[in-house]
From TrEMBL:
InterPro entries: aa-tRNA-synth_Ic (IPR002305), Rossmann-like_a/b/a_fold (IPR014729), S4_RNA-bd_sf (IPR036986), Tyr-tRNA-ligase (IPR002307), Tyr-tRNA-ligase_bac-type (IPR024088), Tyr-tRNA-ligase_bac_2 (IPR024108). Keywords: Aminoacyl-tRNA synthetase, ATP-binding, Cytoplasm, Ligase, Nucleotide-binding, Protein biosynthesis, RNA-binding. Homodimer. This is Tyrosine--tRNA ligase. Belongs to the class-I aminoacyl-tRNA synthetase family. TyrS type 2 subfamily. NCBIfam families: tyrS.
Length: 406
């Protein structure tokens, strides 16, 4: 393994905090692989570039010779992580959680080395706890301690309800660390309280406490809120290369260095040079975004994906043409009594809108084209002959060719 100072330099690069750094140095000095923990709750079906920030740090640690334990939080997801929330998370059913988790490992191992990754599901030990066990764990924390977390403090002071089960979340995440005897736990910097709860519980149980290593949160494509599927500002790891490319091109010029720093494989020195070139005008933001978009597509879809995605992007946005391949979608084009088809319903069936209401809003906002023609606000019904075989475009990047279904 590399010398401790060199490992500390690599590990510290790009991190938000290491608590405490001296403990990490002591652990590294033993010269044995550390057990590095990351927990991910399957609250949606897709991982995104925000999730990839800690995953990339984990891969760095694997390359240094350390072991990774990836915990799929199918138990903690039953509670719902309150971090950063101003209200209680809607509770998911076990079936919803299992469906979301089905592809998590495949997505995570786009970045992680599967041979150096152990995958565990925390429902295995959480749901095995009896009341006596749960009371014993809960007795190790006080309400005052739990209320120290910023999100709970804000909700308490504003008299926003805090459900009792939410208090259990940091305790259960801490218990994960106890079960796997974690040396280090990684999370976003909004996770620091939960990570320190793990350290605290391990100490109280007479174990060597874990080190908390936090990573910066990646802002979404809007450049304002953290990347999240619920905010609609995410770039999913399973997005098609063309979608990844287009979403990356939509970020603001101000966000270019941040995305290079957190979502690319560029070294800190290379990103510093990019930032300086943007500041002195020697680099064009548009070209830097194209380079970044190609790199992101290549990372998750293999070499050459970025070039193909760029060609598709140019075809649509520079040349004003249709993509070379438009997926065909079977939809119900049976006319109603008035001889027309309700287009909002067709867009929902085609997966171009999440609901008929969203489809109507898109039409009213001028965001829908049929056969190249922009629909006027309120144009919700069309002759089925105009739709069959036609290419429908929603927004800038979503296309489908409508085919008559049974």
């Amino acid at each position: 393994m590399l010398a401790v100072d060199e490992q500390m330099r690599i590990i510290s690069s790009g991190t938000a905090s290491i608590v405490p750094a001296d403990d990490l140095r002591r652990k590294l000095a033993r010269g044995v692989p550390l057990n590095i923990k990351l927990g991910v709750d399957p609250t949606s079906s897709d991982l995104h570039l925000g999730h990839a920030v800690p995953l990339r740090k984990l891969r760095q640690l694997q390359d240094l010779g350390h072991r990774v334990t990836l915990i799929i939080g199918n138990g903690t997801a039953l509670i719902g992580d309150p971090s950063g929330r101003n209200s209680t998370r809607p509770q998911l059913t076990p079936d919803e959680i299992d469906a979301n988790a089905a592809t998590y490992v495949a997505q995570a191992t786009k970045i992680l080395d599967p041979d150096a990754t152990e995958v565990l599901y925390n429902a295995a030990w959480m749901l095995a706890l009896d009341l006596k066990d749960l009371l014993e764990l809960a007795s190790r924390f006080t309400v005052a301690r739990i209320l120290e977390r910023d999100d709970f403090t804000r909700r308490y002071e504003s008299q926003t309800p805090i459900a009792l089960h939410e208090f259990l979340y940091p305790i259960m995440q801490a218990y994960d660390s106890v079960k796997i005897e974690a040396d280090v736990e990684i999370g976003g910097n909004d996770q620091l309280f939960n990570l320190l709860a793990g350290r605290e519980l391990m100490e109280k149980l007479g174990m060597e406490p874990q080190v908390a290593l936090t990573m910066p949160l990646l802002e979404g494509t809007d450049g304002v809120r953290k990347m999240s599927k619920s905010y609609g500002n995410y770039i999913g790891l399973t997005d098609a290369p063309e979608e990844m490319f287009g979403k990356t091109m939509s970020i603001s010029d101000e966000m270019i260095p941040r995305y290079y720093r957190l979502a690319s494989s560029r070294s800190p020195e290379q990103v510093d040079a990019i930032e300086a070139a943007l500041a002195d005008g020697s680099a064009q933001p548009y070209e830097l975004k194209r380079q970044l978009a190609r790199e992101i597509a290549d990372t998750y879809h293999g070499a050459g994906a970025g070039d193909r995605a760029q060609a598709a992007f140019d075809r649509v946005f520079r040349e004003g043409r249709l993509p070379s391949e438009v997926p065909g979608v079977f939809v119900d084009l049976e006319p109603g009594d008035d001889g027309t088809v309700y287009l909002a319903g067709v867009l929902r069936q085609a997966g171009l809108a999440g609901s008929s209401g969203e489809a109507r809003r898109l039409i009213d906002g001028g965001g829908v084209r049929v056969a190249g023609e922009q629909l006027a606000p309120g144009c919700y019904n069309l002759d089925p002959r105009e739709l069959e075989g036609a290419v429908v475009q929603v927004g800038k990047r979503r296309f489908a060719r409508l085919l008559r279904g049974e």
